[in-house]
Specification:
Layout: H1 2-17, H2 26-39, H3 61-69, H4 75-80, H5 82-103, H6 108-121, H7 130-148
Helix pairs in contact: 2-5, 2-7, 3-5, 5-6, 6-7
Length: 208
């Protein structure tokens, strides 16, 4: 019984002392996605084997799209729909940024570098020198640039001007009517007699 209680207490202490998983914000996700887009390699070749503005390898697209939007996309479909491509990349960036925030004790700069390194190599800790480190630093620069820009505020809706109410016009005061002066009785006008209209003549029938 004592061993059971000790085990329960130890579990409770461990649960309390575990660090809470931080939640990344939507502006952070958007900045991460934009940074990865801007840092994508510009090969100058249209059919370079990578897809969308984020230059994603074709082998990973069906799995990512299935995880994020519930259906598999072919690389051609991923390429053809910028909105779906952004949705999938945002989903993956959210997952990885959350993971790296936890791994770095909520160090935003280190987390962004690690996400960039994972995006490039598949290993979040592999970019310590050379071109890989330069890429991670490039992504961080674009991320910080995106984060420093103020969020766009929606335009204010125009206020409806109040409708002017018509002022009531004053009612005219009645003026006294003049007394009628006696006048001669009017003569009845003769009724015009209508002139008799000629009766229509029947047209002669055609002779057979």
């Amino acid at each position: 019984m004592r061993l059971l209680l000790r085990g329960l207490i130890a579990s409770m202490v461990l649960w309390v002392t575990l660090p809470a998983q931080s939640q990344v914000s939507e502006p952070q996700i958007e900045a991460m996605v934009e940074a990865l887009r801007q840092a994508a390699p510009k090969t100058g070749t249209q059919n370079n084997g990578l897809y969308s503005e984020w230059q994603v390898k074709p082998a990973i697209i069906p799995d990512w799209s299935k995880r994020c939007i519930g259906r598999q996309l072919t690389p051609a479909q991923f390429e053809a729909s910028p909105d779906m491509a952004r949705s999938v990349v945002s989903c993956i960036a959210r997952r990885e940024l959350q993971t790296q925030y936890s791994a770095t004790s909520n160090n935003e700069t280190a987390a962004v570098r690690r996400v960039a390194c994972w995006w490039l190599t598949g290993n979040a800790t592999a970019c310590n020198s050379g071109s890989q480190a330069a890429y991670a630093q490039k992504v961080l620069g674009f991320y910080q640039q995106a984060r420093s820009q103020p969020a766009a505020t929606p335009p204010a809706s125009p206020q409806a001007s109040p409708t002017a109410q018509p002022s009531p016009s004053p009612s005219p005061s009645p003026s006294p009517s003049p007394s009628p002066s006696p006048s001669a009785s009017p003569q009845a006008s003769p009724t015009a007699q209508p002139s008799p209209s000629p009766s229509p003549q029947s047209s002669p029938s055609t002779q057979q």
